[in-house]
Amino acid sequence: MSSNDLNNQSPKKDSPSQESKEKEIPPEINTKNNLNQNITNNNNKNNNPEQNDEEEEMNQSNSSMELNITTYEIKIVFLGDSNVGKTSIIKRFCTNKFDEIGPISTISVAYSNKTLKVDPFTEVNMKIWDTAGQEKYRAMTRGYIRGAQGIFLVFDLSKKKSFEALNSWLDEIKGADIDNNCVKILIGNKSDFIKKEVDETSANKFAEENNMKYLAVSAKDGVNIESMFEIMGGSCAKIIQELPDNEKYYKQPEVNETDKKFYRITDIDSKKSKKKIKRNPSCC
Questions:
Q1: Domain at 70-278: CATH code
Q2: So where are the chain's domains?
Q3: Are β-strands 263-266 and 109-119 bridged in parallel, bridged antiparallel, or unpaired?
Q4: pLDDT at 281
């Protein structure tokens, strides 16, 4: 064999059995190594008590940061003519459902609640009051407007009459003597309708003239439903945080599960005849 042949000859590879034998570690030695490593780690921890304390404090701090969430309770009232979709908006927000056949017109007032996170450390528990739009319930509605931190003024984009009635609802708000810090948002529902009787320019102009924000929504498609409540919750929380006596808005421990129901109140002027009828126990 020539020298060139020797140089070109590839080196011999170890057989698979030989290679595995070299890499194989007896289980006794492997276990012993693990035990030695654990002992070394424990010794290092014992030798650095200050470092251990710092790690413990950091873990506790992280845990407390995760749990340190402030929850404010706020009262939200829905106003507007009958059949503009107030109940459908609330149901979409609370249950993410929509009644194609249309909900039954609210008699007197309906109530629901839902907690919404507005930032990493703040939540708002919204007590939502759905008022009737009929004229005969106006006197009752005024009582529910009082003490509200937020008001949604709703009209139907496909019915100009409901938009023209907004001024009368503003009069109801003024007559209820609400707090100056109350957040008011104008809502144009049924944005999914192709034929609209109220254009966006008119709605925005009305909102600006009355110091309100405006949002077009669709309870049917769910468009901007979450956004309208996020804007309301965030605005109310910001105002409450700046108040010197904001502790009165802190969420109180629940005595029972009643607040989690979605029910209708009838004859609220008479305590003896007050009845709560559950409409949808899985609402919120």
A1: 3.40.50.300
A2: 27-65, 70-278
A3: antiparallel
A4: 42
